[in-house]
Amino acid sequence: MRVWIVRAGKDHVFEGHFLDQALVGIDFKLAAAPDFDLANASREEIGRVLESIHPGQGGAITGWTGQCWAFAREMQIGDLVVTPLAQSGHIAVGRVLGALERSTQPPVAFVRSVRWLERSLPKELLGEDLVNSLGSISTVSSSRASAAVSRIEAVLAGETDPGPDISPAEDAPEAWLFAFNPGRFDLLDHLSDESVEWSALRYRKHLRTGQRVWFRRTGDGAIVARGELLSAPYRADEAGEWRITTACTERIEPPFSRTEIEQEPAFAAAAPLRGQMGTIFAIDAGLDESLDELIADRMQPLERHASARAADLLERATREHELLVRSELLAAIRETTPDDFEALCRAFLEEIGLEEAVVTGAATAGTLGDGGVDVRGTMRVIGLPPIRVAVQAKQEKAAIQRDIVQKLRGALLVGEYGLLITSGRFSRGAIEDATAPGKMPIAVIDGERLADEMLRLRMGVREGRGGSIILRLDRAQLAEIIGAVRSEE
Fold it and tell me: 79, 303, 362, 470: which one has the fewest Cβ atoms less than 10 Å from its Cβ?
């Protein structure tokens, strides 16, 4: 199942027709060819008909041909369809119900019936990568965002967009294409660097050390180098930005140009090679092999010092092992009961300086969230007066919504500051409300941030034998930490 974007004509002129008649359609002036059977036409036949209607349009015919083909042959009943609306920032979302039909009335030539699931959905409810994937200027295109269908369906069901990391593991790609803008960062000046760091907003579950990477230059669209991933995604700083490192192993000289790409039939449907906007793109094994065969004689190996390479390998192994331990620790945190999670949060807070901590939630009152507060205590910072803190600990699999933030804010006593900790994650609305101007700010810590901090504090983990820096999950220590807090209740 896929997500298709079908635009309602220039300046949204077909928008009312689409919504009122429960359909989406294309025109391309194909009404001028009343006997043309688009449903059974080949690509070549579509191109010839469009050329006869639009003589002298050159390269535009190729793009229009692909869009007609997609609408007629690739779009399937059951797919989702999105139509951007004239109202800024909103989209209509529907389900394709019918096969391709020739329209019996203007203003479009061919249509598909749809059932509109949401006639005006704010795009702000969708993740940035998903919104960007809906921004093609083509009349017909498909979303390339990870797990686009399930994410839009989740939003339609009233849930928060779960983000790009929920696509099934069996669909994990083995190779990648990274695009760079030479006006901002010219990779050709850094081909021999030990590593190059990139933002990793997408595909975090699938990016793995050792996978092949092709590097495409935006602008002229040329593929200029090949390399590999040196790391799995990692958080670069406390703000939580995800990063990944690569190294170039071969320079492609001369570069594999956009013209050469467009001339290869195997690349006809390869949007990442044909200028799709974005930075990181997954490519399948067949495309990877085709590139390898076509460019093999242009590969120029790059020299890198052996010592630097060895240091890369050691750093990579250490970082990946720490990420593994972190994921094991996060899983252990999420396995705790609500009572134990509150106790663990209290121990964590005491470790970072909370004093006079008292559990007031489920462990003592029998109901999680005593007025929205589970732990109260005092933070003491040198040079500042004592800070009273009210904490709510939520052992939740689902995303924390903004109403939880609002309830905690409403439960604060005079002079108290709020902190909300969850073993899961926060919805975008919850984060926005927690930091909204004019409101008492609420600090938030999600499960991944909690695991990061506990790893830094060596809570629930231990060093290897003989003082090794290699860490291991220590469930026994985790149980002791929780037990020590519970025994004081």
Answer: 303
